[in-house]
Write a structure and sequence with these properties.
Shape: extended
Distance between the termini: 45 Å
Number of strands: 34
Largest sheet: 9 strands, mixed
Number of helices: 15
C-alpha cells in the first residue's frame, strides 16, 4: 500500500499554520515560569506543534491510498455431473485431479464447479454423477457469476454435450475460454423410448382431454410393440407401434376423461422390444388436475332479446363458465325460484325488475343470498324499483323517455386495460338505448363507461361496478349490445373488444373471494423428487390481521393411503414449513389449527414428480462441444488428449493481473491523529501540573 498527501490549498499556507502555533506558544509561555527554561521551551514546543497541526488539519489536506494486489490467473474445471455422464465421466476424474495439481504447481489458482456445488481445492472424490437434468449454460453462467471481475482465463468443461434444460451454451457469451473435454458415445444406442408427453395440466370434470406421447426409436427397424395409457394400473387405451425405419419418430394421441375431482395419475407405457439398450425410458408419468372450477352463471331475461343471444355467445366462448339461460315470458311459472339452491357464482338480470312484475320477487331473494348481480336495463325495466334494490346507481327517470348514447371509456378505471386503438373503436360502436334522466353514482361505485351523446362527452355513467360492498354489483344502463358485436365484427372481423369487456366484468363479479382465516398451501403445485416440499401458512383474526403462535397439524397421505403426521408452530419469523424425503406420486394433505377457540381445517393436493430427462437422450453431442470451444477460443479434446491441453496451458500461461484500488480520505478523518493530539496535549498538561503550573 502506498500513501500520498494531497493539498487542496497552496503549500505556502503551511507557513501560517506554523506562525499560528508559534504565536500561541509564545503568548502562553512568555511570563516567567516556576520551572526551568528548558522545560518551558519543551512545553511551548508541544503546544506550538499541536496548535500548528490543528490549523494544518483545518486546511483539509487529503490522503490518497493506493493498494495493489496480484490476481493470479485462474482455471475452473466445470464437471457435468449428470446421470448420462456417469459411466464415462467417473474414470476421467482421476485425470482431472492430476491436471489440477499440475496447473496449481504452475501458478494457477484452480477450482472445481458442478451443477450442485463448488468444490474448493483439488479433492473431487465427492463428485457423484447423480443429477437428473443437464443445464450446461446454467453451469457456465454460475462460473461467470462466481468469478465476475476476477482473472479467470480458462474453463475446462467435462461433458457429453447433452443439454436437456435451459438454452444451449453456444447461444451465450463468456469472458473466458471454454476448453471442452468430450466423453460419451456419439453412436445412438438400439433403443425405443418415450421422448416427450404433451398434455394439459388442468382439465374440467367430465370433459374429454388429450394426451399425446412422442415415441422415438433408433436401430430397431422392422420390430413392433405397444404403447398404453394407464390409470391406477388399469389400461385405458392401447395402440400398436410399428417401427418402420432405423430412425423412428411418431406421435400417438390418446383421449381420456375423469369423473373424479383432484389430481389424477396417468401412465404412458411402452412394451419392451428385444435388443433395446434399456427399458428405463419406456415409461412416463402424467399428472392432470381435474377441477370442477367453472363459474356457474344464471342469465335471467324478461323476454327473448338479441342482447340475450349476444351475452350467451360471449359467455359460452369461455370454457371457464357454465351458463344457464331462463326466459320468463316463455316459462309456465315465471315467478318460481329458478335459482333454487344451485350455487350460482353470478346472476345476470336482463330487464329485471320490470314493469310487468315478472321475476321481481326473485330479485329480493338474490339480494338476500349475497350473490353477485349484473343488471342490464331495457325498455321494460322498472327503474324506480331498481333504485330501491341496489346501492350502486340511482336513475331519476322521466317514465317512457329514452336516449341514444354511445360509450366512452373511463381512463381512471384501472381494473381493465385497453389499448388506445380499442378505445377509439369503442366510441365508434352504435348507440345504446338508455333511460333519460338524472344519474347518481353511489360512494364506492366505479364508472367503467360514460355516456356520450353525439359528439358531446357527458359525466353520466353507462356501465358501473361496485365491489366495495359485501354483494358485488354491476349495472349496464342500456340495451343494444348485440349491435356492438355486429358492428365490431363488420369493422375488424372479430368480437374481441366487446367480448373482452364483458368477460372481464363477469370475471370480476364472479370470482370467489377467499375469506378463510386459516390458509395453508404448497408454494407450487408440483415438486421434483428429492426436493423439499414447502408449505406457506397464513392465519388471520376477525379483521384479517395476521396472527402467530398457533400450532398447526399437517397430515399427508400418498396414493396408497399411507399417512404421515407433522406438527409445527406458525411464527412470523418463519411462516413456511418444509418436508423432505417424499417419493414420486400424488399427495393429499389436511391441515388443522385452532383460531380463537374455533377449529379450522384445510384440504389440498400436490404432486412430487420424478425427473428422468437424462433418459430421454443418451447420445453424446460432440458437435455442440466443438462449436462452444471454437466460439470462445478454447480447444476441443477427448480424455486421451487432456494431457496435451494441460501442457499447452502451462506453456502459454496467462500472466497474473495487477489490480490497484485507490482511496481518497481527508486527513482529519484518520482516527489515530486524534489520539496523537490527545497524547501531546495530555503530556503538556501533565508536565505543567507536575511542576505546579495552572
Amino acid at each position: 500500500m502506498r500513501s500520498e498527501l494531497i493539498f487542496q490549498t497552496p503549500y505556502w499556507f503551511i507557513i501560517f499554520c506554523l506562525l499560528a502555533g508559534g504565536a500561541y506558544a509564545f503568548l502562553l509561555y512568555q511570563p516567567e515560569a516556576s520551572w526551568s527554561k528548558k522545560l518551558n521551551y519543551a512545553l511551548a514546543a508541544l503546544r506550538g506543534i499541536v496548535v500548528a497541526f490543528i490549523c494544518f488539519l483545518l486546511l483539509s489536506p487529503l490522503v490518497r491510498r493506493t493498494e495493489s494486489v496480484i490476481d493470479k490467473a485462474k482455471i475452473v474445471f466445470a464437471v457435468d455431473n449428470s446421470e448420462s455422464v456417469k459411466g464415462v465421466g467417473q474414470p476421467v476424474l482421476k485425470q482431472i485431479t492430476e491436471a489440477a495439481q499440475e496447473l496449481n504447481a504452475a501458478g494457477y489458482e484452480v477450482s472445481i464447479q458442478t451443477f450442485d456445488k463448488t468444490a474448493e481445492g483439488l479433492n473431487i472424490d465427492s463428485i457423484r454423477f447423480d443429477q437428473r437434468k443437464t443445464d450446461l449454460s446454467g453451469l457456465l453462467q454460475t462460473v461467470k457469476s462466481n468469478f465476475e471481475g476476477r482473472n479467470l482465463t480458462d474453463v475446462i468443461l467435462l461433458s457429453d454435450g447433452i443439454v436437456n434444460q435451459g438454452v444451449a451454451p453456444t447461444f451465450n457469451q463468456f469472458p473466458f475460454k471454454v476448453n471442452t473435454v468430450a466423453v460419451g458415445d456419439t453412436i445412438p444406442d438400439l433403443d425405443i423410448r418415450i421422448k416427450d408427453v404433451v398434455n394439459n395440466r388442468v382439465a374440467y370434470l367430465g370433459n374429454d382431454f388429450p394426451i399425446r406421447a412422442d415415441i422415438a426409436a433408433n436401430g430397431l427397424a422392422g420390430k413392433s410393440t405397444t404403447v398404453s395409457l394407464k390409470q391406477g394400473g388399469r389400461i385405458i387405451a392401447t395402440q400398436q407401434v410399428k417401427i418402420d425405419r432405423g430412425t423412428f419418430f411418431k406421435s400417438f394421441d390418446f383421449t381420456a376423461s375423469s369423473k373424479q375431482k383432484g389430481i389424477q395419475h396417468y401412465t404412458i407405457e411402452l412394451g419392451t422390444v428385444q435388443g433395446e439398450a434399456s427399458d428405463r425410458n419406456n415409461k412416463r408419468d402424467v399428472y392432470i388436475d381435474i377441477i370442477d372450477g367453472r363459474q356457474k352463471i344464471l342469465l335471467l331475461a324478461l323476454t327473448p332479446h338479441p342482447d340475450v343471444k349476444a351475452l350467451r355467445s360471449l359467455i359460452e366462448s369461455n370454457d371457464n363458465y357454465e351458463l344457464d339461460v331462463n326466459i320468463l315470458t316463455a316459462s309456465a311459472n315465471p315467478n318460481a325460484d329458478v335459482a333454487g339452491n344451485k350455487p350460482y357464482d353470478l346472476i345476470i338480470l336482463h330487464q329485471i325488475p320490470n314493469m310487468l312484475g315478472l321475476g321481481n320477487p326473485m330479485v329480493r331473494k338474490f339480494l338476500d343470498s349475497k350473490r353477485p348481480i349484473f343488471y342490464i336495463l331495457g325498455n321494460q325495466s322498472a327503474v324506480p324499483l331498481l333504485n330501491t334494490l341496489n346501492r350502486s346507481l340511482t336513475v331519476n327517470v322521466n317514465q317512457g323517455q329514452f336516449d341514444k348514447v354511445a360509450a366512452r371509456y373511463n381512463p381512471l378505471f384501472q381494473q381493465i386495460n385497453f389499448n388506445e386503438e380499442s378505445l377509439k373503436l369503442l366510441e365508434r360502436l352504435p348507440p345504446l338505448s338508455v333511460p333519460f334522466g338524472e344519474y347518481t353514482v353511489s360512494p364506492g361505485t366505479e364508472t367503467i363507461l360514460f355516456q356520450k351523446v353525439g359528439t358531446l362527452n357527458t359525466s353520466k355513467p353507462l356501465l358501473v361496478l361496485n365491489t366495495a360492498t359485501e354483494q358485488k354489483t354491476a349495472i349496464l344502463a342500456g340495451e343494444g349490445i348485440w349491435q356492438w358485436r355486429q358492428e365490431e365484427f363488420a369493422l375488424t372481423g372479430k368480437h374481441e373488444l366487446v367480448d373482452n369487456l364483458f368477460q372481464k366484468i363477469i370475471q370480476i363479479l364472479s370470482v370467489r373471494d377467499d375469506k378463510r382465516k386459516f390458509r395453508i398451501y404448497p408454494v407450487r403445485p408440483e415438486f421434483e423428487e428429492g426436493e423439499e416440499v414447502i408449505f406457506q401458512t397464513e392465519i388471520y383474526n376477525d379483521i384479517y390481521e395476521p396472527v402467530y403462535g398457533q400450532e398447526v397439524k399437517l397430515d399427508i397421505t400418498d396414493e396408497k393411503g399411507k399417512s404421515k403426521q407433522y406438527a409445527y408452530t406458525h411464527t412470523a419469523e418463519n411462516p413456511r414449513y418444509n418436508i423432505s424425503g417424499l417419493a414420486e406420486g400424488v399427495y393429499r394433505f389436511q391441515a388443522t389449527t385452532t383460531v380463537k377457540g374455533i377449529s379450522e381445517k384445510i384440504n389440498g393436493q400436490f404432486v412430487v414428480r420424478k425427473v428422468d430427462l437424462e433418459l430421454a437422450n443418451t447420445t453424446a453431442d460432440f458437435g455442440m462441444l466443438r462449436e462452444l470451444a471454437a466460439k470462445t477460443g478454447g480447444q476441443f479434446v477427448q480424455p486421451a488428449s487432456l494431457t496435451q491441453l494441460i501442457q499447452k496451458l502451462k506453456t502459454d500461461r496467462e500472466p497474473d493481473r495487477l489490480d490497484s484500488s485507490e482511496e481518497m480520505v481527508e486527513l482529519i478523518h484518520l482516527k489515530w491523529l486524534f489520539f496523537l493530539i490527545l497524547i501531546l496535549l495530555g503530556a503538556e498538561w501533565g508536565l505543567r501540573k507536575y511542576h505546579g503550573g495552572y
